[in-house]
Amino acid sequence: MKKVYSTVAAILVLLGLALAQTQQSTDHTQFFVVFLKRPANPPQLEKDAAEKLQAEHMANIRKMYAENKLVVAGPFGEDLALRGIFVLTANSAEQAKSWANEDPAVKAGRLEVEVRGPWQIRPESIHHLTEDTNELEQYTLVLLNKGEKWSADFPGLKELLPQHLAFMKDLFNSGKIAVAGPFSDKGDLLGIAIYTTDPAEAAKLEQGDPLVKAQFFKPESHLWFTGKGILAPGIPFKRRPAQ
């Protein structure tokens, strides 16, 4: 078992180092992704209480952003158990989890957290805004899970990895991907890629990834939003007028 985990760790480190070289990164900031999930039995709230809690949740997001703890936040655009994500800069997963657990919606039991990372990405892919933005942009967040043929000693990985990295580099250079990278901890979710396209186009593009074709990765695409200007331009999002 130890051999399996050490081999997996080596694969992920190799992926991360290669991706960092591809993106010409020199920053060693550690990023952690916090998945905000709907609990199995969340407490039910009256409308006024729910709106108050949402306002407190948003205020906490702004507070963590001002404190340079949070660099990206955004909700999913579908009715999923996954409600949204935080991307935090922290010294450890434990520190990131402690910050996330202070969110009012988490304390109230309306959300629960799962922390993954470090997430090995290029820091320059994320832009820090000096002013609040009330505008959102649409993206597709692709979860790269273990595929049906994933294994710790996956045959042909040495040959496929350079092809995968070349594929990712082309998507970065063409503006189709805003940020992507593997996780260096253990889990079935191997990494995340955030596409600047709609889910249909992202799913089509993903099928061109050599590691997806080889069923090493199994992509799972979801509509997702974040503030305009934080990542490379996505699809402009217009809020529907109140009825």
Describe what this molecule looks like in 3D.
It is a single chain. The chain is α+β, with helices and mostly antiparallel strands. It folds into two domains: 1-26 and 117-125 and 135-235, 2-Layer Sandwich (Alpha-Beta Plaits); 31-115, Dimeric alpha+beta barrel (Alpha-Beta Plaits, 2-Layer Sandwich), CATH 3.30.70. The protein has seven helices and nine strands; from the N terminus they run αβαββααββαββααββ. The chain has helices at residues 2-23, 47-66, 93-100, 104-107, 157-173, 199-206, 210-213, and strands at 31-37, 70-75, 82-89, 112-116, 136-146, 177-182, 189-195, 217-227, 235-236. The strands form two sheets. Strands 5, 6, 7, 8 and 9 form a five-stranded antiparallel β-sheet that branches. It has a four-stranded antiparallel β-sheet with strand order 2-3-1-4. Helix 1 runs parallel beside helix 5 (157-173). The chain is globular, with a radius of gyration of 18 Å.
